[in-house]
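N-acetylglucosaminyl deacetylase, LmbE family, pasting as requested.
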Amino acid sequence: MPAPFPADWSRALVVAAHPDDIEYGVAAAVAVWTAAGKEVRYLLATRGEAGIAGMPPGEAGPLREEEERRSAAVVGVSEVDFLYHRDGLLVEGPPLRADLAAAIRRHRPDLVVTLHGGDTWTGPDVTPAAWNSADHRALSRSVLDAVADAGNEWIFPDLPGEPWSGVQYVAVQTIGDPPHAVDVTDGVEPAVASLTEHRRYLEVLSPDVPVEDQARQVVDQATLTEDGDRRVGFRLFWG
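Structure tokens follow.
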């Protein structure tokens, strides 16, 4: 049984690569946190402009950004920040780390949350494996480094904002058997409603399945455990 998620924090920054990433499970935890009075903000590395087949990036980017803002509002998040890196071309390294560190300084969180960045979406012994997105892999590792960068005045000396070393924890969404978990029983319905706001994206992704059905299937898959509980799992790192 995973340990309960820490509660000794006030402000979280949830960092993802694309609009809709947070809604694939983590939004259920966000709904629980905001209902408990925690302040949660979102940071997106890209606008997801390459994510809708048949729709040019110049049209898809603004649409997906607006869908993300509406989606965030459903689970109590009013601040959504975008870094505007190119969708599909995130690269782990100093430029991405610097932008993430600057954002951490702006938002000054106690908790930083990011999504699963492992090579695959399945366990190491499962074949064939589902390969994880290059953007997801690059972002997760860069977030962990950027938390330290945000507090160091010398790594990126031209970075705006005062150094911020107030991050207590970094929580990385974990697939499989997580060391820590959030009970999201009360967050499931808000999470479904939140993912439903990505309507245009989901309509193209699975045109034969109603958006509401897609959203429920995804949230169920992300939160329903073998023992019937509703949890979202994380691995914690010190800030």
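Note for the archive: Residues 57-74 form the longest helix (18 residues).
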